[in-house]
Design brief:
The complex is a heterotrimer of chains A (about 250), B (about 290) and C (about 325).
Chain A (H helix, E strand, L loop, with lengths): L5 E10 L2 E11 L4 E5 L6 H8 L7 E6 L2 E2 L5 H7 L1 E3 L12 H9 L6 H14 L15 H14 L4 E5 L7 H16 L3 E6 L2 H7 L2 E6 L2 E6 L1 H5 L2 H8 L3 H12 L1
Parallel strand pairs in A: 3-8, 3-9, 6-7, 7-8
Antiparallel strand pairs in A: 1-2, 1-4, 4-5, 9-10
Helix pairs in contact in A: 3-4, 3-5, 4-5, 9-10
Chain B lengths: L1 H33 L6 H19 L3 H28 L3 H23 L14 E4 L2 E4 H23 L1 H11 L1 H6 L4 H23 L9 H16 L4 H22 L4 H15 L10
Antiparallel strand pairs in B: 1-2
Helix pairs in contact in B: 1-5, 1-8, 1-9, 1-10, 2-3, 2-4, 2-8, 2-9, 3-4, 3-8, 5-6, 5-8, 6-8, 9-10, 9-11, 10-11
Chain C lengths: L5 H12 L1 H4 L3 H26 L8 H18 L3 H25 L4 H21 L9 E2 L14 H23 L2 H11 L1 H6 L4 H27 L1 E2 L1 H4 L2 H14 L6 H20 L5 H16 L3 H9 L5 H12 L1
Antiparallel strand pairs in C: 1-2
Classes of the chains: A alpha/beta (about 250), B mainly alpha (about 290), C mainly alpha (about 325).
């Protein structure tokens, strides 16, 4: 058995009296898209912030390539090959799209020209080729999501953490961006994506974890997760699984 | 023996601190509602001190009487500044507000320099040097008046915020600007009202300060950092914090002056300010407003 | 072109270098020396404030440290002005690094950063006004010794070329920053710290680097001031006036642009001189105008004079130029 690329071990996070994440464990296998889903307020954002180094956990460890990275700040994680996007997009609004992406490219490329050239290639990969010289502040929501992707990709990550990259997009925009994400995986980048919207993540993910009220309540293949009563209850409320099962039975 | 010398220093520090508190009250009120740092606060205090000076020298009005006219006048001045200069010019950006209020401070300070020149001026009120004995120490009467008046003004301010409709609107805007806006409160007007109130505090402080103090075009500089220190110390936006912080700052200054010499008195305050900012930016008394 | 943007630096500096051949008027040269001094001090502020987005209200701390180091080394320790000048710059940079380390480590941003830098400058001012080594209240007077070896010159033109050389150096440094990875990261930090951090930018190191360079440039202005006027006191060296002028020039000229501080300093000083001509030598009037212009620029011309000029004479912006570079590569 090979060791997972990323392992989260019994991570808890307390804010005052509130236990936002409670002994959550998950693992991300190399070369796959792993989904982390859960209803609103499940603690996804907190767990994501802990994995990406923006918060430190009250308890537990995050292990990457067999190394404990729990205490590492985000910029060190980026150097280790872990990149992230932001749910609420954070463009460098005053810079052009190309300059935005170049900041990521500079992680491994010292020269300005080379970084800008690399940024152009990455921008084209995610479909921003026609807007490279526009100010990032003027992009559409979908454009900004792509910019988040491009900037993170430009750091040449081994592991890409996507924070609700599909949220706020229209169905057709989601259809457009799904192949981009698949292509990233196919190039060998491991992906952990956190989503509230279930449908798209189910079709993208190879493996899914479900977080509810701070705990991991289920994991498995997307198809198995979709029919797991615990998951349905977490999303739709107590008793929903039964009603759902009943409804399904009636339909037959 | 040591305590016999220190107690007067502390008492005088407390008295001076009350006036500092009054200056800081206006600043913390503006911060608490508008969430801006008003760099013009010191210059506006200087302007108020010159106004007191002018009232006394030219019109023969006692400072304690002049407060009745100057407080409303400075309220209007503050209102107009926020409504017609700071608000429109800052476009709601933090760094712009810093710069705009700095620009206003530079204009006011140098306009005063232009009109009154750099000389340091004082006024001679009959009670200027009267003292009363307290705890074996002689305390300056104007400073004692200032001490009690500072608390009276703080009480009045509290009453305005707690009891009047405008006060309620101010608190609503401070807490939840968008919500207040949606429920029909004119935020620009409330901002200006708040700025006006904060500026009126300065006029009161000036009237209390002038009988035992002096004025020159740069005198506000000394106060502005002290006031910032107090506001940060007491927790940004907190009225009781400003009062306690003011007294504390007064005592620190007095004791530093006592141990290090008069000219180094304020260094204690600035060092305290730096330390608080560096190690406890939420203030000594709790969370940021 | 291999290194983009240096041609305009050479052109601007060359044009300015010719001024003493056109006029020998000491009034004009003196005016330009002061304007260039403010441009230099302002360029220091611009590195941190304009490119890095960290608004300091206390650049007097670096100016004063440079000035006092140069002066005190000569007066108290008999150290020659030339090495003194270099040590002054280093001392200013060190003060910048220390203040930066303390402030940034505590996460101070925006207004808080402005306040803490102001407080540091004021502490230094008060200390300088009582410390015996700085001459306390009397001030420090550098002995008149008009020799090249003592960094003192009879001719204003020499001083003019020296300050111009320093300004030129600062322009080159800023151009290098603009074309570097460090510069890209600095601007990223200004625009969005969290996003920069996620992309591998060490925010603390970047800000600290900018603050050190910024302090060094402003300190160079202080060193020059000491040699030009040969007199310092605490109110001059560490006074709030220089902190204000340091931010006024870039903001009025065009914040975060290479020529902003130079343009701003020329505009501001010209306005000040004009005011003096109209009303005689009444104190304060020039500063009233500066303050009003500051409010007006922030309110109505956020990109400063540089932005206004660009609107009047739109030229090919840098972005399309880059697009062409990209094409030629393919």
């Amino acid at each position: 058995m090979t060791e997972p690329l990323l392992g989260v071990h019994n991570v808890s996070k307390r804010f005052g009296g509130l236990l936002a994440v409670s002994e959550a464990s998950l693992s991300v296998e190399s070369g796959r898209i792993t989904g982390l889903i859960g209803p609103n307020g499940a603690g996804k954002t907190t767990l994501f912030a802990i994995i990406s180094g923006f918060l430190s956990p009250s308890d537990g460890r995050v292990v990457y390539r067999g190394r404990d990275i729990t205490a590492l700040p985000p910029h060190r994680l980026a150097r280790e090959g872990i990149a992230r996007t932001f749910q609420v997009v954070q463009p460098f609004a005053g810079l052009t799209v190309r300059e935005n992406i170049a900041v990521g490219a500079h992680l491994h490329i010292a020269g300005r020209r080379a970084a800008l050239a690399a940024a152009e290639r990455t921008g084209e990969e995610v479909g921003l080729g026609s807007v490279l010289d526009r100010p990032a502040g003027g992009l559409t929501v979908a454009g900004r999501k792509r910019l988040e992707l491009a900037r993170a990709l430009a750091t040449r990550p081994s592991l890409l953490l996507l924070d609700e990259v599909l949220a706020g997009l229209t169905p057709s925009e989601i259809r457009d961006i799904v192949p981009v994400i698949r292509a990233i995986r196919d190039r060998g980048v491991t992906i952990l994506m956190i989503e509230h919207v279930m449908q798209a993540v189910m079709s993208l993910s190879d493996h899914v974890f479900v977080l509810s009220e701070g705990r991991i309540i289920a994991e498995g293949k997307p198809a198995a997760i979709a029919s797991d009563p615990k998951v349905i209850e977490a999303y739709l409320g107590h008793g929903a699984a039964q009603r759902y099962a009943g409804g399904a039975a009636h339909a037959h | 023996m040591q305590t016999a010398i220190i107690i007067p220093a502390i008492l005088n520090g407390v008295l001076m601190g009350a006036v500092y508190a009054l200056v800081a009250l206006g600043l913390t009120l503006i911060y608490g509602v508008l969430h801006i740092i008003n760099f013009a606060h010191g210059a506006l205090l200087t302007a108020a001190l010159f106004a007191v000076y002018f009232c006394f020298r030219t019109l023969g009005i006692d400072p304690y009487v002049a407060v009745l006219g100057l407080a409303p006048l400075f309220f209007l001045l503050g209102y107009a500044l926020q409504r017609f200069v700071i608000g429109p010019a800052a476009h709601g950006e933090d760094s712009n507000i810093l710069l705009v209020t700095l620009g206003i401070a530079v204009v006011i300070e140098n306009a005063l320099l232009y009109v009154f020149r750099a000389d340091t001026r004082t006024i001679d009120v009959p009670y200027g040097f009267s003292v009363i004995e307290f705890g074996g120490t002689f305390l300056s009467v104007p400073r004692v008046v200032g001490f009690f008046a500072a608390f009276a003004v703080a009480g009045l301010l509290w009453a305005i915020l707690a009891l009047t409709d405008t006060g309620k609107a101010i608190r609503a805007v401070a807490k939840e600007k968008r919500g207040a806006e949606l429920s029909g409160i004119d935020v620009a007007h409330i901002y200006a009202m708040t700025f006006g109130l904060g500026t009126a505090c300065l006029a009161v402080a000036a009237c209390l300060l002038m009988p035992s103090y002096y004025v020159n075009p740069h005198v506000g500089n000394a106060f502005v950092l002290v006031a910032f220190t107090i506001v940060v110390l007491g927790g940004m936006g907190s009225v009781p914090g400003a009062l306690i912080g003011g007294l504390f700052a007064g005592v620190v200054e007095s004791l530093c002056g006592f141990y290090l010499g008069e000219s180094l008195g304020q260094i204690g305050i600035f060092l305290m300010f730096i330390l608080v900012l560096l190690f406890r930016p939420t203030g000594l008394l709790g969370a940021r407003a | 072109m291999k290194a983009p943007g240096y041609l305009s630096v050479v052109a601007v500096v060359a044009a300015l270098a010719l001024v003493p051949f056109v006029t020998s008027s000491n009034v004009i040269l003196n005016f330009l020396v002061i304007a260039l001094l403010i441009a230099l001090v302002g360029q220091g502020w611009n590195v941190l404030g304009g490119y890095g987005g960290q608004y300091s209200f206390g650049h007097a701390a670096f100016f004063g440290t440079g000035a006092y180091t140069t002066a005190v080394l000569q007066v108290q320790y008999g150290i020659n002005a030339w090495p003194g000048f270099a040590i002054g710059i280093a001392a200013g940079a060190l003060v910048g690094a220390v203040i930066g380390f303390l402030s940034f480590r505590s996460g101070l941003k925006g207004s808080y950063f402005a306040l803490v830098t102001l407080a540091f400058a004021e502490v230094l001012r008060i200390v300088a006004s009582v410390a015996p080594i700085t001459g306390a209240g009397v001030g420090t007077l550098i002995r008149l010794d008009v020799r090249f070896e003592a960094f003192q010159f009879q001719s204003r033109a020499i001083f003019y070329w020296i300050i111009l050389a320093l300004v030129a150096l600062s322009l080159v440094i800023v151009r290098m920053i603009e074309n570097s990875r460090f510069g890209a990261r600095l601007v990223a930090v200004r625009e969005n710290e969290d996003a920069a951090r996620a992309l591998g930018v060490d925010v603390m190191a970047t800000k600290l680097g900018a603050m050190t360079i910024s302090a060094a440039i402003t300190a160079a202005g202080g060193c020059f001031y000491a040699q030009y006027y040969l007199f310092l006191d605490a109110g001059i060296a560490y006074g709030p006036w220089i902190s204000v002028e340091a931010l006024l020039a870039p903001i009025i000229g065009g914040v975060g642009t290479i020529y902003g501080p130079l343009l701003g300093a020329l505009v501001v000083k010209t306005l000040g001189e004009a005011a003096k001509h109209v009303t005689g030598t009444a104190p304060g009037l020039d500063l009233i105008i500066y303050g009003a212009v500051l409010v007006l620029v922030v309110g109505f011309a956020p990109r400063g004079v540089a932005g206004l000029l660009e609107r009047l004479w739109p030229r090919r912006s840098r972005a399309p130029a880059r697009a062409e570079e990209g094409k030629s590569r393919d």
